[in-house]
Specification:
Layout: H1 4-16, E1 20-24, E2 27-37, E3 41-47, H2 60-74, E4 83-90, H3 98-104, E5 113-115, E6 118-120, E7 124-127, E8 132-140, H4 156-171, E9 179-186, E10 197-205, H5 209-229, E11 233-243, H6 250-262, E12 269-272, H7 281-285, E13 290-291, E14 294-296, H8 307-312, H9 316-338, H10 340-354
Parallel strand pairs: 3-4, 3-5, 5-13, 6-14, 7-12
Antiparallel strand pairs: 1-2, 2-4, 8-10, 8-11, 9-10
Helix pairs in contact: 2-9, 4-5, 6-9
Length: 355
């Protein structure tokens, strides 16, 4: 939510190519840029936030580059009365999930389809993603001297360690794709003092929203049970927005695949439900037909959110692939502008699923 310079640079470039810019109330670093009028109205999603301490180790600078270049390129082949080209500026994907807020604010209500490409170490046309919900947990005890009178204390850190053990034991019986991961952010102030406060952060993920709700309930039970077992007080708070699982539109994915073949881009996999993360584009995919393919910017296994990926994402080869990604988006969108019947079938697939 501090991407002011990124927003300003992208909007300046789009304005120079006759896009009109609208801000989004309550999201100062988001925007919607439009060119043309009428339907279809295709949204190209531009992420531009970075990782704290790592910078662009997830390649969001390349995402915004692909979507912005694709939109500008489309203006030369889609007349201003043949439909609307939209670039949606999407901040804070790594933290609060601003796309979830953009959905709630109705930004995608008027869109006929949405798309973006994520840089990765593999090119995958359909890569699913998990739901995500973040929780902070505070356990509250009583401090005392750890040697002189430990019996007067209630050890919040011991309770937190027990909570992590409970999660590990429960993990054995969790359905495939369900995840609970956490870190301890505070465990005490000195080794000779019984900690009266312990704080942790947890990420909860699942393959579908029904499983997600069950897993959250199970997590709450573990927190309450641990607090009760150690006679501790507790607080649980949600942070950010719930990320929905990605539901890619398969017809739209096939159109994208056709453009990969046209440009002779090597595809590693058409579909995968392995090695899944989470993204707030999942929320978008529940309200409008959407795709979120990946494109390889590295020649070997190199996971995102690492220094190695950050280095790869700033090499000349990555920017050449960014141009290829822009062409792929533009060609995919162009299919929808020129073939209204095809777009209608894509929308039917989506609305049958969510009716």
């Amino acid at each position: 939510m501090h991407e002011h310079e990124a927003k300003a640079r992208i909007c300046s470039l789009l304005k120079a190519h006759n896009f009109s810019i609208k801000d989004v109330r309550g999201l100062p670093t988001a925007f919607v840029a439009s060119y043309g009028k009428g339907r279809p109205r295709i949204a190209l999603l531009a992420e531009y936030d970075a990782l704290e301490g790592l910078g662009h180790a997830c390649g969001h600078h390349l995402i915004s580059g692909m979507s912005t270049l694709a939109a500008i390129g489309l203006t030369s082949i889609v007349g201003p009365s043949a439909g609307t080209i939209a670039v949606v500026g999407c901040p804070a994907e790594e933290t609060i999930g601003a796309k979830a807020l953009l959905v709630k604010k109705g930004v995608f209500k008027s869109m006929d389809a949405a798309m973006m490409i994520h840089p990765a170490d593999k090119t995958e046309v359909v890569k699913l993603s998990l739901s995500l919900e973040r929780f902070s947990v505070v356990l509250k005890g009583i401090s005392s001297h750890a040697s002189a009178n430990p019996w007067n204390g209630k050890n919040a850190l011991s309770g937190m360690l027990s909570l992590f053990q409970a999660i590990d034991v429960n993990r054995i019986t969790l359905p495939d794709g369900n995840r609970i991961n956490g870190i301890i952010k505070r465990g005490g102030s000195a080794a000779n003092i019984i900690p009266d406060r312990a704080e942790a952060e947890f990420f909860i993920r699942a393959k579908d929203l029904e499983s997600h709700a069950v897993l959250v309930k199970r997590f709450f039970t573990m927190v309450r049970g641990t607090a009760h077992a150690f006679s501790l007080g507790y607080e649980m708070k949600r942070s950010g927005n719930v990320y929905y699982p990605l539901e890619p539109n398969m017809q739209l994915a096939r159109i994208f695949e056709k453009q990969l073949k046209k440009l002779r881009v090597k595809v590693d996999r058409f579909f995968t439900d392995k090695e899944l993360g989470s993204s707030d584009i999942g929320n978008v995919s529940h309200v409008v037909p959407a795709i979120h393919p990946t494109i390889a910017i590295t020649g070997s296994s190199c996971p995102a959110h690492s220094e190695a990926f950050k280095r790869q994402a700033n090499k000349p080869a990555a920017y050449r692939i960014m141009r290829t990604g822009a062409m792929l988006l533009a060609l995919t969108a162009f299919e929808l502008y020129k073939n209204k019947a095809l777009l209608l079938n894509i929308k039917k697939e989506h609305y049958i699923k969510y009716s």
